[in-house]
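Tokens in:
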């Protein structure tokens, strides 16, 4: 993709992302076969992006925000399942310790920022202060307002330092959110996703909507815009978001030497008769 095409795509994406998306419409569900085919193609492109980022020493931060059950984790998994975890690093910080509470707010996030040749994905980020902390009363209104006033300048400094910063908000309807949270209750594979905080925040939809709107108003800047993705259909949002992400970082396929497996000699060494503990083959 040329730089000119990239600038045009980014400009168009910024215009689309600035549109307010409060009530997501439900598209027709995407079939598994079509999804797998499209995702496989996108995975190839993500590998190309990975190699380009390493070769050019780029520094990339991708922020994922959204309500509980919006699909952040599944989207991040779709992005990272075929790339190197040493280059695509996922950061999901727990609640701050007592010591971290005394630090400058952004301090514990900065230590996870990328070096050259790295892409860091934040599964929730410093925007916790504008969302869950504000809604659940973990910070004062003065602290939340101070954060919203300061963060555009911090992000400007990040971008000026050479970091490519992408911010995504996954938008889900209250009906779909309820369905997803209920599915966690009945599924032993998902119950760990239902935290006490999810239950406490479940009845605060309007408060979260207000906090989201104020966050967008204060931090949707030309140098670090918010992009909103409709996440009613998990498969569609993953494909749409990965496609969008690839457009935001102009990359080229790096030359690769053709790999050829050489001949190998087997049989010179005879394995000892050792009493290995073999696991039972139940399947």
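Residues out:
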């Amino acid at each position: 993709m040329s730089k000119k095409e990239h600038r045009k795509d980014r400009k168009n994406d910024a215009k689309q992302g600035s549109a307010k998306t409060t009530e997501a419409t439900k598209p027709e569900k995407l079939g598994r076969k079509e999804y797998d085919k499209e995702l496989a193609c996108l995975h190839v492109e993500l590998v190309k992006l990975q190699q380009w980022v390493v070769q050019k020493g780029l520094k990339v931060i991708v922020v994922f925000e959204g309500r509980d059950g919006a699909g952040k984790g599944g989207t991040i998994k779709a992005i990272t399942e075929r790339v190197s975890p040493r280059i695509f690093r996922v950061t999901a910080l727990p609640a701050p310790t007592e010591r971290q509470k005394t630090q400058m707010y952004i301090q514990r996030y900065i230590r996870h920022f990328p070096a050259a040749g790295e892409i860091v994905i934040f599964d929730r980020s410093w925007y916790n202060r504008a969302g869950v902390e504000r809604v659940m009363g973990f910070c004062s209104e003065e602290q939340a307002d101070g954060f919203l006033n300061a963060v555009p300048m911090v992000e400007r400094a990040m971008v000026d330092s050479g970091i490519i910063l992408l911010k995504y908000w996954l938008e889900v309807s209250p009906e779909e959110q309820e369905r997803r949270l209920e599915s966690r209750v009945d599924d032993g594979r998902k119950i760990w996703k239902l935290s006490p905080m999810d239950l406490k925040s479940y009845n605060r939809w309007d408060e979260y909507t207000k906090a989201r709107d104020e966050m967008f108003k204060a931090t949707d800047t030309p140098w670090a815009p918010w992009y909103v993705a409709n996440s009613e259909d998990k498969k569609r949002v993953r494909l749409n978001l990965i496609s969008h992400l690839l457009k935001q970082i102009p990359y080229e396929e790096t030359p690769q030497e053709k790999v050829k497996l050489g001949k190998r000699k087997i049989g010179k060494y005879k394995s000892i008769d050792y009493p290995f503990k073999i696991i039972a083959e139940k399947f």
